[in-house]
Amino acid sequence: xxxxxxxxxxxxxxxxxxxxxxxxxxxxxxxxxxxxxxxxxxxxxxxxxxxxxxxxxxxxxxxxxxxxxxxxxxxxxxxxxxxxxxxxxxx
Length: 91
Description:
By secondary structure, the chain is an all-alpha fold. The chain contains three helices and no strands. Helix content is about 60%, strand content about 0%. The protein is elongated, with a radius of gyration of 26 Å. Keywords: Endoplasmic reticulum, Membrane, Transmembrane, Transmembrane helix. It is found in: Endoplasmic reticulum membrane. It comes from Brassica carinata.
């Protein structure tokens, strides 16, 4: 899954869970049943999981282009700059 696919999965999850919560609340309120509300919400969570967890092809629309190993050898690795002067505290 690419970066845009992760963002899409996150947005889909939030939207689908919100819709499931609203539908479950309305259904539970109209039937005056907490059990109905929880079952509908659990179904919404299940559907959301089936849509957002697997790595579906529409989550891979923008694949990353990795650098070839032969190209990576041509570019120097960044070095960490170490300062030789240390601050000394005098008492």
